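call fold target=peptidylprolyl isomerase
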Amino acid sequence: MAPGSCGLLLLLCLLLSTLGAPGLGDPGPLEDVVIDRYYIPKICLREVQMGDFIRYHYNGTFKDGKKFDSSYDRGATVAGVVGVGRLITGMDRGLQGMCVNERRHLIVPPHLGYGSIGVAGLIPPDATLYFDVIMLDIWNKNDKLQITTLSKPERCNRTVENSDFVRYHYNGTLLDGTPFDSSYSKDSTYDTYVGSGWLIKGMDQGLLGMCAGEKRSIIIPPFLAYGEKGYGTVIPPQASLVFSVLLVDFHNPKDGVFLEHLEVPESCKRRAVTGDFVRYHYNGTLMDGTLFDSSYSRNHTYNTYIGKGYIIPGMDQGLQGVCMGERRRVVIPPHLAYGENGAGDKIPGSAVLVFDVHVIDFHNPADAVEIETVDRPEGCNVTTRHRDFVRYHYNCSLLDGTQLFSSHDYEKPQEVTLGTNKVIEGLNRGLLNMCVGERRVLIVPPHLGHGESGARGVPGSAVLRFEVELLSMEEGVPEGYLFIWHEDPPASLYEQMDLNKDGEIPADEFSTFIKTQVVEGKGRLMPSSDPEKVIADMFRNQDRNQDGKITAEELKLKSDEDREKVHEEL
């Protein structure tokens, strides 16, 4: 109860008497203000005290209900200071102790109102006045900004400072809860610099120290807001403002890219540099966690050169120095991303972007095959050469460990003649100069693998990892040859080949003769898993008219054909 007011019992008696309660006598003139607190809000953060500046609405009537004044009719609240003589004494007393949004009925006796004089033409002498009042705002010249943190992210690496550019959502209300503005209704954040005079002083101060994703309630007294003038029709003069703020993101024009290394492989033999071609997965979010893009949703890595301007500058910088398999977070300010205009309908203007990146692999177009010898038998003097026929086991995977192919999944090892374009060039090179029993790890860049297009089961531009073990090797023959002589061929080759001396050589005689030369060590076939097919190919090459037999005119040595520029034969 405000100082000078009557006790509770006396107040109730006076109120009932004034309202004409049945069965009670008229106690005579009121000595003090009668206060009926007919609505008290559940939450009352502050009560009116002497010297406070207040804003309120009221209706003023006489006992018979006739209205003599109303702030509602004027369409403007009443503002003033309590307890300094600017109000009638009864109102000064009746307003003390009120909460914002509290409603009171006040009965003011004449000696605490306009006395025996009244107000000419409005309030007669010795009039008792009845006021219905709602309190809308309370503040004091000694007030400070009131900041309440409603929620705050667990991780907060940085807070707002002066000269930062902020993007935030807000709901703005008067102290009584009346809304006057909201960024949500505009479906757009409010974007501005802090501490540069572009905001009211209270908001400039209230945003300092916030984290991205933090929510605050900021109560701003009028002298740190719009003061005596108010703002348009929505903010009255001398109004305290309440802002519920969600800081979406912020940056400083001087910011560079911020890197957070989430996971770095223990073994990192090489780091990406300008000119490297990188394959990576990413999730792209705004600072408040809103997802705007993801390579995972497309089930395809993002593939690009770095440091050459093919991607936004911040990502060009953020991928420098990554290891294969590394996971890192790249935070990019808007001036190194999509700037004030944003991109599409998912990246707003001046947005800070956060990329969580997983680097799958990278290579340089100048890269060679990387060969690591895991085990090499001692006393190895013979190694594989171009055109040799080899048998080997292999496991093939991507650099992130994804298994692609394995010879162990088949009944027999892989077989190939080196240099015949039967395997990718990188694997071909990796199998050269190997000893039987040797084991290697090969890292094959895509330009020596399956290239930009990839292959079935192999992504485009993928770096491949092979684990290979050489099981056996056979010495090859020069390119274009199916059989070579270890010494000079017989002078009368056709006669020796014509085993039954009938003047023609059918396929079975030809096959018998060649096999005999191999067994006796006089020559060797091109290595193959199917020597019968090699012999059949030789016969078909010599049987020029394809009549099933070779004549003396048809039989020619490869060396002779090369001189004659005919075509490739024996």
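return ok
The first strand starts at residue 34 and ends at 39. The two ends are 122 Å apart (CA to CA).
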